[in-house]
Structures are given as structure tokens and as C-alpha cells.
Amino acid sequence: xxxxxxxxxxxxxxxxxxxxxxxxxxxxxxxxxxxxxxxxxxxxxxxxxxxxxxxxxxxxxxxxxxxxxxxxxxxxxxxxxxxxxxxxxxxxxxxxxxxxxxxxxxxxxxxxxxxxxxxxxxxxxxxxxxxxxxxxxxxxxxxxxxxxxxxxxxxxxxxxxxxxxxxxxxxxxxxxxxxxxxxxxxxxxxxxxxxxxxxxxxxxxxxxxxxxxxxxxxxxxxxxxxxxxxxxxxxxxxxxxxxxxxxxxxxxxxxxxxxxxxxxxxxxxxxxxxxxxxxxxxxxxxxxxxxxxxxxxxxxxxxxxxxxxxxxxxxxxxxxxxxxxxxxxxxxxxxxxxxxxxxxxxxxxxxxxxxxxxxxxxxxxxxxxxxxxxxxxxxxxxxxxxxxxxxxxxxxxxxxxxxxxxxxxxxxxxxxxxxxxxxxxxxxxxxxxxxxx
Length: 437
What we know:
single chain; 437 residues; alpha+beta; Immunoglobulin-like; 4 domains; 6-stranded mixed sheet; 5-stranded antiparallel sheet; 33% helix; elongated
């Protein structure tokens, strides 16, 4: 039970009447009358409130939410009362999501239900708990008191990596020879090295595509048409070491890598390739050999769901040796990792020697948007000048490390967070189109 501001004003008025009554006795009678009216009004309102069972609350939301993505929660408030009530609703989403308070107010019609919605943006993977939903009912007559009803609607929710390929209009829609990605739509006729069919030669075709025997038989120039190879092996390696802990757009680099790996899984399987996964840090935490069956996506999703950031350095040598012993088939190996200086680059390249040339490894890095923004800010005082100098040195060392890796023949993607996913997918498509596997 909560007393309203109106009740407080009446109490203050009665108190003033009693105080001033020492000088004007008639005011004491007015004070008693105010108290009598207040108590009468409170009794009437308290008797009018419905019992708790007159209301019910049902919360619904996606069975599995995606990290860093808008997910809609629906609250349905049902009334069995014969009276209309003005109510305030407070819901408690998981604490770790650091949301603003979820509050609504509305009029609940008699024996009807209302639906209220709000959006949540989970920033961590894992299992989380929704807590109590509270309904605060306004007094029916004088608004002297309000009554609260708490509904222990505790529910768990699982937050997974972002597998939204099928829900985005510009994302994945694959037929036998058509791949659409979030950045571009690519129909790969003439790309790749796997023969598909014959067609009439056009001036834009390369001479090496002319099929001489078919041209002789048909009496006109004919060209071979190729498609990208299918059933190739793609391995997604995700570094869970401490360097993957820095954040961009509310997500850690590890979570960005996990989401990119989830989307790559969709693209690879839809494109007919076998995709596998390895999570590694100080040790190998999860390993799935490349497969292209329907259950592989679910297995990869469960493994990505368990990826947790470590506070230690990653052991590249052990991870790559582990992979070399188990991955017999040549594969495109996408390593989501981070380097900060030439020393870490040398360690990574030294470990890479166990993979190359049997496999085609690619190192996928993410630029630090916060550091880039520091360099773009104007210098206003000595502290900011020092910060800018340190930042410039950090970025210089990182750029030198990347240049050193590329000079040794390594393929490196270094993309901003908002272009990270598309850069990975486009690289995969380009490698397949050029037949590098």
C-alpha cells in the first residue's frame, strides 16, 4: 500500500490546522474534519481494491535471443475485475543487461487484457533471469492510496550468437548458384574452377574459357561456364585470449568474432561447403571437424554459445598443432585473433608455419574504433596531448605488426567493427571465386 501525494497534502493541511488552532480554535475542528474525511476515503478505497487473483501477468519473448541484437519482450496484463483500473507496470529484465527501468502506465479495461512491449539488447551470451513484474493500482475514487501486486514471474532466457542471416533482407538467400551477402549480391557465373555448363561466347569472356571442340561441333564460338567449388573445408578458429576483451559498439572483440563466425557458418553451409570450429586460448576448448550436414549449424551454435574470454595469453603453437593433426583435408582457416606489436605478430607467424602451405590461413583482426577516435580529437590540454601520443604509438606498433605479417605472405583482414562481418564474408567469396582452395 502506497499513500499518494494527495494524502500527504491532506495530512499536512490537518497538521497546520492543529498548529494554528492554538490561535484560532475553530481551525482545530477543521483539522479533525480533514482527518475524518481522509480516514473515510482511505477505508472506501482500500475496500474497493480487487484481490490479487483479479490480475494475471504473462511475459513472452524469443526462446533464444541474439547477442547485441534488438529482441522484443511482450507483457500481457489480464484483468478479471468488473471495474476499469488505472495501473502502472514495472518489469525487471536481467540485471546484467544494465537497462533503464521498464515502466508503463495504462488503463486496464474490465475483464480484458492489454499488451505492452519493450526491446532489450543483451550484450553478453549465457543464461539470464527475468525477475518480478509489479502492478501498481490507483485508487478507484479519490486517488488517496495505491496498492501494489507483485508477480514472481521469474523466467530464464538463453542468449546465443547472432545467427540472423535469414531475417535480414540483404543477408543470405542462396540457390544453387546465387549468394547474397549483407554487403553485396554476387552471382558467380564464370567464377571458380568447377565446370558447370557451356554457353555462347561473348566479347567479355576470357580467351582461355573458349571450348574449342564444342565450338567446332556447333559452328559458333562456345565458352565454358564455371561455378565456385562446393564441399570445400572451412575452419573457423576463434581466439579467446585476453587481447580479445576490448570493446566496440558495446560488444567485446570476442563477441564480434563469435557473431561473425555464426554468420560465416550460415554462408558456408548454404554455399555447399563443410564448416568446422575451434575455440582456443591457453588450451583448446572446443573442436568440431568440418561438416555440411543440417546438424552442424546447431553444434557450432552450442559451441559458440560457450565461448568465454580468458585473462591469459593464447597458445597459438598448441592450437595450430592440434588442428594440423586432426584436419587432414586442405582447408581455408579463418583465425579470429588480435595482435598488438611485432613480437605478437612473430609468435603468430611462427605458429602459422605448421599450417602453410597445406592449408590457407587468414588472420582476421578488428580495428580499435576508440583508439582511432582519440587520434581524431583536437588537443585541448597537456593530458589529452599525452593520451594522443600514447595512442599514436600503440597504433603505429600494431600497423607495423600487420605489415610484418603481410610481408611474410600472411593474408590479413583488418576491418572496423561496423564492416567486420561483411569483410569476412567477402573474403571467403573472393577466395572461392579465384579458386585458391
